[in-house]
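Bench log, entry 3. Co-assembly request; chain sequences pasted below exactly as received.
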Amino acid sequence: MIHQTDKNSIIFHNFIGGRQVEPTNGAYSRNINPANGEVIGEFADSGTDDTNSAISHAHEAQKAWAGMSTVARAAFVAKAAQILRERIDTIARDLTREEGKTIGEARGETLNGIAKLEFACSEALRITGETLPNADMGIQLYTLREPLGVVASISPWNFPFSTPAGKIGIALVAGNTVVMKPASLTPLSSVHFVQAFADAGLPAGVLNLVMGGGRTVGDALVTDNRVNGVTFTGSTAVGIGIAQKAAAHLCKTQLELGGKNPMVVMDDADIELAAKAAVDAAFLSCGQKCTATSRIIVHKDAKKALLSKMLERTASIRVGDGLDEQTYMGPVVDENQLNSILSYIEIGRKEGARLLVGGERLGDGDLANGFFISPAIFDDVESSMRIASEEIFGPVLSILTVGSFEEALETANTSEYGLSSSIFTRSLRHANAFARNVQAGVVKINGPTPGNAVNAPFGGRKQSGVNISLKQIDFFSELKSVYQKFN
Ligand code: NAD
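Structure output for the full assembly:
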C-alpha cells in the first residue's frame, strides 16, 4: 500500500520505481476536508530529488514497456480499470472528502475516469500508421507511430481523478512511461489511482506518483530534458509558464486551461430547460469546473421568465457536506479559494452589477468548520466588468442582456477564453450559426456547458488551451516515415 497508518494520522508516501518511497526531505503536508476540517492525512511534500528519481525510474522502464505489444500494455490498463471499478465507493467517498464535491458528483467523476481508461484500451487497437503513395514504385513508404518516452501528467484539484485518468490511460497504451503530479489540495484520488495500477501488476517505473508543490515538483518535471511530453490541466497563467519552460528543451506540451463559458438563451428557448441547465451548470461542483457556465447571455424578451425560474431553483439549493446525499452544493475546496470568490462578489458590487441572490459565506450549525458560500447571481453585468471576463472558479453567475442573436454571439465571443459554450433556441438557423461561429472548443445546443463524451475531442481555443488533438493518441505519440526498398 502507498500509505501507512501512524497512531495520529495516515501518512501517504510517493510511489516511485514500483514501491512506496518517503520524500528525501522527510516533509509531509496535512490535507483537510473542506466541509468540516477533518484531517484526511499527511501527504509527501516532495522536492526536486524525488522528482528526479521518479523521472530516472520512468526513463529506465520506458524501453522495456515500449517493447511490449500494445495489446499487452492495454491489458494492464484494463486490469487497473477493473480494480478501480471494484473500489468505486471508497474512491468516491475520498474524492468528496478531499475536494468537497457531492458524493453523487464524485461517483460520476470516478466512473468517468474509469470509462476513460477503458476507452484508452479500445484505442490501443487503433494505433495505426499509414501506407503512402510514392513516386518510386520500388520503395514502399509508410509511417510508424512511436511513443514519446517519458510523459509528465500535471493535474488540477477540481477533477483529480478523471482528468489524469483521461491522459495517463492513453499515454500508457501508447508505450510511454509516466510521472504523475497531482494538485497539492487533492492527492488522495491519485493515490487510489496509482494503487490500482500497482495491484494490477504494472511493471516497476512505468507509472510513478510524486506529490508536492507546483513550483518544486511541477517545475522539476517541466524543465528536465528526459521528459518528452507534458500534459497539463490547470490555470492559464501556470500553463503559459509551463509551455515556455518546456519549449527550452523542445518538449511537447498539451494545455487544458481555464474558461469563462457562455450560455446563450434566445427568446424562442424552452425556458424551463434553459433555467435548469443554467443553475446546474453554474452551481454544481460549487462552480469549480473549467466548463461551468459563468455567463448567461439572455435575449431581453426571455429574461424575465428565465430569471424567475432560475431564482426559484437557486432558492431551493441545499448547501452542505457533500457526503450527505441530500446536498446539492458542497464547500469550496479551501479557504484561499473561498476568499478569492468573496472578493469577486465585492468587485462585482463595486463595478455596478446588481447582486440578486447569494454570495455570502455560510457558517451556521453544521457548516461552521467548512468553506461554504451561497450561490450568487449578478444582473446588469457588462462584458467589460471583471466578473464577466475573469475566471472566478466558484458559484457566481453573471447575467448579460442582449437584443438579438448577433449581439448574443458577439458577447459570447468577447471573452479571451474559449472552452465550452451553449445556446438554448428552437431556431435551427441560430443553432447552426452559433455552432459555426462561436469561438469555443465545445458547443452544446439546448444542453449545459459541462459534460463531455470520453471519445470526443475536448479542449479550448484562445486562452483555454492548445494541442488538444482529435485523438489523444496523436499527442502521446510521434510519427516516423519509413522508406523501404526491395532489393
Ligand atoms: P493551477 O494552475 O494552480 O495548478 C494546476 C497544477 O499545476 C497543480 O498540480 C499545480 O501544483 C501545478 N503547478 C502550479 N504551478 C506550477 C509550476 N510553476 N510548474 C509546474 N506545475 C505547476 O490550477 P488549479 O487551481 O489546480 O485548477 C484550477 C484551474 O484549472 C482553473 O483555471 C480551471 O479552469 C482549470 N481546469 C481546466 C480544465 C480543462 O480541461 N480545460 C479542467 C479542469 C481545470
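The domain at 4-257+464-483 is CATH 3.40.605.10 (Aldehyde Dehydrogenase; Chain A, domain 1). DSSP finds 15 helices and 26 strands in the chain.
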